[in-house]
Design goal:
The complex is a heterodimer of chains A (253) and B (244). Chain A is mainly α and 253 residues long. Chain A has 2 domains: 33 residues; 210 residues, MetI-like (MetI-like fold, Orthogonal Bundle). Chain A is 83% helix and 0% strand. In chain A, helix 3 crosses helix 9 and helix 3 packs across helix 10. Chain A is flat. Chain B is of the alpha/beta class and 244 residues long. Chain B has a domain of 61 residues. In chain B, strand 1 and strand 2 form a beta hairpin. The longest helix of chain B is centred in the C-terminal third of the chain and has 18 residues. Classes of the chains: A mainly alpha (253), B alpha/beta (244). Chains A and B meet through helix 7 and helix 8 of A and strand 6 and helix 2 of B.
């Protein structure tokens, strides 16, 4: 009884919000007679989606491939450098302040340079999205690796554990509750990164489709692209969220 | 036998020397249960960590069975900390198995030790699913799994309520009779010290030295009623007077 009520609240209420918003949108469009070029109504957008479904899917796939590669490369290098920082305090002192500063700068401004360097293809997008995915994961991982308590280290040392054993059996698992939230942030940033790089210069991908349809004033196609890439981004986020729940299971016991 | 000779520990903070342990000399027989008691901040935990090889003394030496120990060279000792220090991603079985894993040994004695601390039915539970007392039992089982000759305990039951504490005290005595390790037990509680020990070492305030050593001549088989006996309460009173 209680559970069915929960499900009702979690899924039904947001769904009602969605339907209401779509209905009001459609109604406003009808009353004020807004031109499709300025703001297409939900029916026009769904028509566009049905007609161009496979084109949209194709381009979303390319952008997501770029985002996924960027996410993986960015996260793996971030975790590796966090390990370096953990074991060499000098390298941490020398580099970490810059890493934190770069985390706060709009790296997206680099997109034109990256396109210039790595070309119009998939490469420049992967580089862009790995760059923006890198910094939050670095900060999360550094925090995670140093979150170990002195008593825990003492315990391992009292059993004559080696540094590698301490890393493998203590530091690494302890860092996961810090790394995963950072990875979730990185998923969304990676998608933004590759889309923006596509805006700058590309021949494929959802960013390309959006820019291209803007030239032809196909606003409803632009909206369809935005909807597709948003859904894909949400899916990516929840995928990592699901993996987190499986791996960092002890947090939710 | 463990001999501690003229142990001294200074902490350097901002260029000034703070003497944590002034001069401690002490000898402990094999299989003896020794409690260390003293005012808070007197360096009890520091002393224990030095014996465990976790920190280096400024000067002095620790001789175990005739061998001078350098830091970390003492094998066959286990530490039970103030907190249970369990790994939350490991269940009871895996937590107790940790020391064996670190030494690449097979898990032959894990189940025995879990039974010994009375957690037979909780083998597959995770730390979060256990009460504070149970967690400390797991920590005790983990310390026992290598069959240590020396067990160092740093206020292990300090965070428990009195009922649990008494229960674990009795079980610790039972375990001590069965496995007969040498135990060095740091505590704040005078009555706990008297109840458990063959010998109570009273430390002074800083700079710390051994103020007195009391031999506790109570029967080997102890039960909770012992705490009400006149003899027991005399020991407690005697130690309290020496501390204050």
């Amino acid at each position: 009884m209680h559970k069915t009520k929960d499900i009702l609240n979690i899924t039904l209420l947001p769904f009602i919000t969605f339907l209401t918003a779509v209905f009001l949108w459609q109604l406003a469009d009808f009353i004020f007679n807004i031109k499709e070029v300025i703001l297409p109504n939900p029916l026009e957008i769904s028509n566009q989606i049905i007609n161009n479904f496979f084109i949209l899917l194709d381009n979303t796939g390319i952008t997501m491939l770029e985002s996924f590669c960027g996410f993986i490369i960015g996260s793996i290098s971030a975790v590796s450098i966090a390990i370096l920082f953990t074991y060499s305090s000098n390298s941490k002192k020398a580099l970490y302040p810059y890493a934190i500063a770069l985390k706060a700068t709009p790296l997206y401004a680099l997109a034109p340079i990256l396109v210039m360097w790595f070309g119009n293809g998939i490469m420049s997008k992967i580089v862009m999205s790995s760059l923006v995915a890198f910094f939050p994961v670095l900060v999360g991982a550094v925090k995670g690796f140093t979150s170990v308590e002195q008593e825990q280290i003492d315990l391992f040392r009292s059993f004559s554990a080696s540094r590698w054993q301490i890393f493998k059996k203590l530091r690494f698992p302890s860092s996961l509750p810090y790394i995963f939230p950072a990875l979730k942030i990185a998923t969304t940033l990676a998608v933004v990164g590759s889309t923006i790089a596509e805006f700058t210069g590309s021949s494929k991908g959802i960013g390309h489709l959006i820019v291209n349809s803007s030239y032809y004033l196909e606003t409803s196609l632009m909206f369809s692209g935005i909807i597709f890439i948003s859904l894909a981004g949400v899916f990516f986020f929840y995928l990592v969220n699901l993996i987190e729940k499986k791996i960092v299971f002890w947090q939710t016991i | 036998m463990i001999q501690i000779k003229n142990l001294r520990k200074d902490w350097k903070t901002n260029g000034t020397n703070l003497t944590a342990i002034g001069d401690i000399s002490l000898s402990i027989d094999k299989g003896e249960f020794v409690s260390i008691i003293g005012p808070s901040g007197c360096g009890k935990t520091t002393l224990l960590k030095i014996i465990a090889g976790l920190i280096k003394p400024t000067s002095g030496e620790i001789i175990i069975d005739g061998n001078q120990s350098k830091s970390n060279s003492i094998k066959n000792l286990s530490v039970v900390f103030q907190n249970p220090v369990l790994l939350p991603w490991r269940n009871v079985l895996e937590n107790v198995n940790l020391p064996l894993e670190l030494e690449d040994k097979i898990k032959s004695t894990v189940e025995d030790k879990i039974r010994l601390v009375g957690l037979d039915n909780f083998k597959n539970h995770y730390p979060k699913e256990l009460s504070g007392g149970m967690q400390q039992r797991v920590s005790l089982a983990r310390a026992l799994v290598l069959n240590p000759e020396l067990l160092l305990m740093d206020e292990p039951f300090g965070a428990l309520d009195e009922i649990n504490r008494n229960k674990l005290n009795l079980e610790l005595l039972k375990i001590h009779r069965k496995l007969n390790p040498t135990v060095i037990f740091v505590t704040h509680s005078i009555s706990e010290a008297v109840f458990l020990s063959d010998k109570v070492v009273i430390l002074s305030d800083r700079p710390t030295h051994v103020q007195d050593i009391i031999d506790v001549k109570l029967p080997v088989l102890r039960n909770i009623e012992l705490k009400e006996s006149k003899k027991f309460q005399e020991y407690v009173r005697c130690i309290r007077q020496k501390i204050s």
